[in-house]
Amino acid sequence: MLYNKNDGVCRSPEFICTMEDSMQYNSTRNKEYKVASAMAMKQGLSADGGLFVPELFPTLTKEIYEKLMNQTYIQRAATILGLFLEDFTVEELESYCETAYGNGKFGAGNPTPIHYTDDKTAYLELWHGPTCAFKDMALQMLPHLLTASVRKTGDERTVCILVATSGDTGKAALDGFADVDGTKVVVFYPKDGVSEIQKLQMVTQKGDNVFVSGVNGNFDDAQTGVKTIFTDESYREELNEKGIILSSANSMNWGRLVPQVVYYISAYCDLVKAGKIALGDIFNVCVPTGNFGNILAAYYAKKMGLPVGKLICASNCNNVLTDFINTGVYNRNREFHLTMSPSMDILISSNLERYLYDISGKDDAYISTIMKQLSEKGSYEVTDSMKETIKKDFFAGYASEEDTLAEIKKTFRENDYLMDTHTAVASYVLKKYREETEDQKICVIASTASPYKFNENVLNALEQNKPCEDEFERLTLLKEISGLEIPKQLWELQTAKRRFLTACEKTDMKETVTKFLS
Ligand SMILES: *Cc1c(COP(=O)(O)O)cnc(C)c1O
Hints:
Elements: E1 2-3, E2 10-11, E3 24-27, E4 30-36, H1 37-43, E5 52-54, H2 62-69, H3 73-84, H4 90-101, E6 114-118, E7 121-125, H5 135-139, H6 142-152, E8 158-164, H7 168-177, E9 183-190, H8 196-203, E10 210-216, H9 219-230, H10 233-241, E11 244-247, H11 254-273, E12 283-288, H12 293-303, E13 308-315, H13 320-327, E14 329-331, H14 352-359, H15 364-377, E15 379-381, H16 384-393, E16 394-398, H17 401-415, H18 421-437, E17 443-447, H19 455-461, H20 471-482, H21 488-491, E18 503-505, H22 509-517
Parallel strand pairs: 7-17, 8-9, 8-11, 9-10, 10-18, 12-13, 12-17, 13-16
Antiparallel strand pairs: 1-2, 3-4, 3-5, 6-7, 14-15
Helix pairs in contact: 1-6, 3-4, 3-11, 11-12, 17-18, 17-19, 19-20
The structure holds pyridoxal-5'-phosphate.
């Protein structure tokens, strides 16, 4: 079942690709630089600053659909990853998918269930994993892909993942990498800059290979500190001598993006099986967007032949993408807002580069030029023909804080469905799209976090908040109002052992890493 780029034939499991004849990935800033998927994932970013993209996209043939239709989520994931990662064997991918999504990690049934509020509105719940947010879909898989990639490239070093987090990513990385052989993970969070529940999730993390530290500073301080460590050549050399290679778990890594393609294809199969749509019929997709990774995965699924109509890009009031899609001008020189959907508080959407590379006709020189403009001036404008393509592929809109609260309340009242603040942004923008365009096609909304994870804002939206002793009293309050089960991963934090109680100065982050590694 390995797809071969030369003849488009799916191979039997016995066919094990070598690195040379498997699908190649090239950098968006230099398409002559080509590597197999293992090398792309090991490197993360290309040395020229570009992002790795597949040279050719596999096609979802009738035979593949037939196969997927009868598979479980885990099997579908192995099938679809196999189309992209030709330098991995079927057995390898199957075992990673089983470890990542099986063993009750995402509950007992389908890891990505769909909730219909009516016949044309389908909330794809991507938050049933260990940290209650959608980043688990990628970060439970990445450690397996990354460690295997390091080994496949003939490298015996231990991979040390460094993360600066504003909340969601840190915990998802900790949980994904915990006790994975050949890895260590160190997470820094701004000491007073994450929610109580996010902090608890991190400081109680289990695993012998993990370390968590607060930083006396804000998120930018933590991020700057991590970047400084990454670019410190002599430190890297020092670690190299100890058999350690530094790596990051950020969403520019292909190994984080490719697992996200799976759930759009799987959701389509589920829509067909549920009789909501006939095989081949077009559906729309609506995604609450920050770094443009999740929605790009839907675009890639479309490139493979999944019948996606419009991609609806939903932002909060950090609406740089709304403006870009509507005008073709990307301009990050604007006020930064802290919102109640913090995982979308982003002004530079890194994965957009991959989409622009694609629609520019793979013009690597052009991409280098506009990305240079972005880093020097904070803005760029794309060509007229690209503007037209963008308008065809995407619709963009944004929700204010009031819109977000109102959407949570309205959907709970009218449809008895409770959602978190990020999902509410998408839900609101979908309604705007339907009003403006009268396109009433069935739409899959990516639901990216459990309402319990953002309980305070959700209770405010329902106008039912009251002073609570702690997070757990609020979880109970939300349960009483909604009737929805409290995720046990959050409830159990109450009694979990607090392991990591220290914070360091922003100037001492390197020493903190060194101490942990020795
Ligand atoms: C990260 C995140 C997003 C944004 O996803 P991108 O891939 O960065 O666009 C949306 N919602 C939640 C809950 C997230 O954690």
